[in-house]
TrEMBL record:
It holds the Pfam family Aminotran_3. Gene3D superfamilies: Aspartate Aminotransferase, domain 1, Type I PLP-dependent aspartate aminotransferase-like (Major domain). It comes from Azoarcus sp. (strain BH72). SUPFAM superfamilies: PLP-dependent transferases. It comes from the Bacteria. InterPro entries: Aminotrans_3 (IPR005814), Aminotrans_3_PPA_site (IPR049704), PyrdxlP-dep_Trfase (IPR015424), PyrdxlP-dep_Trfase_major (IPR015421), PyrdxlP-dep_Trfase_small (IPR015422). Belongs to the class-III pyridoxal-phosphate-dependent aminotransferase family. Keywords: Aminotransferase, Pyridoxal phosphate, Transferase. The keyword Transferase applies. One of its GO terms (cellular component) is cytosol. This is Aminotransferase, class III.
Length: 460
């Protein structure tokens, strides 16, 4: 099929996720054709680009791992599908749940397997609701999340997401969904002092719970680093402080590690860095490194037993899906986790963090850059029109699209957020050479954008 024919069919038939539908029709798709050597993507025109975003912060092991392909193929040959309904199960799904219990924070003993992050968040909301009903506290129905947070786009989970595009026209947030301010050191009203940022979040959570009444609040949801909100990195100690506050307030503490899990921020899970034990945890992306779809919700004994003992042994807990615990996805996840651990990928990423941090730090000298931040191999560069006042660029300049296009022309993929934050989530196999290429291409891209007369005029 010719490229033009493919692009035409895309316009006519394929709805893209989180896209401006008419804008997409005009611009057309950049068709990706192959990925190789961990970090490289090739498009349908043969152009090679360095993927500094691991697909959608998911291909943590990188492209081209033959052992993963083999694990999937073997499982497909042996048993391509097994339902988890009617008392059936499959070995990969059982082994994966046990493996997750081994590597996750100790509090998390039980796993429900999903197809991705949104479905894991949706399962969390449904099971929390069920838990409080089953344990005789049906009034505990309010959920608190964080401004700029992202928890997927299911019909209820999208209301815990606090980004305007996910609310506009979708009738969320619901009346029982609430937010506190983002722990955003660069733009926090309390300044960037770590203890002040932490204290402000704890106070905001306490105030919100007091406003709603502790007896009415079910849970607090957070990401250890806010990903889609612009890679907002809270100070170290923040997650632990929010865990303790939630415990004191008598509400469930739910950590969404869909991005931060599986080595993205250094350890296997961000919770482990601060010895945090959540009541529930969601994960996806790095679980299978994007080779096949899968997510998971893990829950504590307390939540599990509350639901299990809430009804007679033969009464169904009506939450499920055809592909929960899909054996091919589970087989892939087991191999991917083996690569993180025995394959040395996590250790390699930890060794690369100082170089990544140094490269980001050098970007601060650039006239467009107001802030850089990172945790592990998850980072951001925030562009401002005036470094002293932190004034943002006028969205009318269309800078986000221009930066993305210019980056691509320079052979680099990063996330270009609408508010002029550039997000980076390189595969955990990035080498020193790859990082050198990343920062050289990024600098070229920023220089090109800086050269544009309208951008120069917008600078203070
Ligand atoms: C923190 C977080 N939660 C949930 C989701 C939703 O996951 P999915 O896109 O797999 O549905 C994402 C996706 O980016 C995410 O970053």
């Amino acid at each position: 099929m010719t490229t033009d024919a493919l692009l035409d069919l895309d316009r006519k038939h394929l709805i893209h996720p989180v896209a401006a539908w008419r804008g997409h029709e005009q611009r057309g798709t950049t068709v990706l054709a192959s990925g190789h050597d961990g970090v490289w993507l090739r498009d349908i025109h043969g152009k090679e680009v360095l993927d500094a975003f691991a697909g959608l912060w998911c291909v943590n092991i990188g492209y081209g791992h033959e052992s993963v392909v083999q694990a999937a193929a073997e499982q497909m040959r042996k048993l391509p599908y097994a339902t988890g309904y009617f008392g059936f199960g499959s070995e990969p799904a059982i082994r994966l749940a046990a493996k997750l219990a081994e590597i996750a924070p100790k509090s998390l003993r039980h796993t429900y397997l999903t197809l991705g992050g949104s479905e894991a968040v949706d399962a969390a909301i449904r099971l929390i609701t069920h838990y409080y009903n089953a344990t005789g506290r049906p009034q505990k129905k309010h959920f608190i999340a964080i401004e700029r947070g992202y928890h997927g786009s299911s019909s209820v989970g999208s209301g815990l997401t606090a980004l305007p595009a996910f609310h506009r026209g979708f009738d969320v947030p619901l009346p029982n969904q609430h937010y506190i301010a983002s722990p955003y050191p660069y733009r926090s009203p309390v300044g960037d002092d770590p203890q002040a940022v932490i204290a402000a979040s704890v106070a905001a959570l306490r105030a919100k719970v007091a406003e709603l009444g502790a007896d009415n609040v079910a849970a607090f949801f957070c990401e250890p680093v806010q990903g889609s909100g612009g890679v907002i990195v809270p100070p170290k100690g923040w997650l632990k402080a929010m865990r303790e506050a939630s415990r004191e307030l008598g509400i469930l503490f739910v950590v969404d590690e869909v991005i931060t899990g599986f080595g993205r921020t250094g350890p296997m899970f961000a919770c482990l860095a601060e010895d945090v034990e959540p009541d529930l945890m969601t994960m996806a992306k790095g679980l299978t490194s994007g080779y096949v779809p899968m997510g998971a919700l893990m829950i504590s004994d307390e939540v599990y037993n509350g639901i299990a003992d809430g009804a007679a042994p033969n009464v169904l807990v009506g939450h499920g899906a055809t592909y929960s615990g899909h054996p091919v996805s589970a087989a892939v996840a087991l191999e991917v986790i083996r690569l993180y651990e025995e394959g040395g990928i996590l250790a390699h990423a930890q060794a690369m963090e100082p170089g990544f941090a140094a490269g980001l730090g050098e970007m601060l000298d650039h006239p467009l850059v107001g802030d850089v931040r990172h945790r592990g191999l998850l980072g951001a560069v925030e562009l401002v029109a005036d470094k002293a006042s932190k004034r943002a660029f006028d969205p009318a300049l269309g800078l986000a699209d221009r930066l993305f296009r210019s980056g691509y022309q320079n052979g680099l993929i990063f996330r270009s957020f609408g508010d002029h934050i550039l997000g980076f989530a390189p595969a955990l196999c990035f080498t020193e050479d790859n990082f050198a290429q990343l920062f050289a291409r990024l600098k070229r891209t920023l220089d090109e954008v800086l050269d544009a007369p309208d951008v120069r005029r917008a600078l203070a």
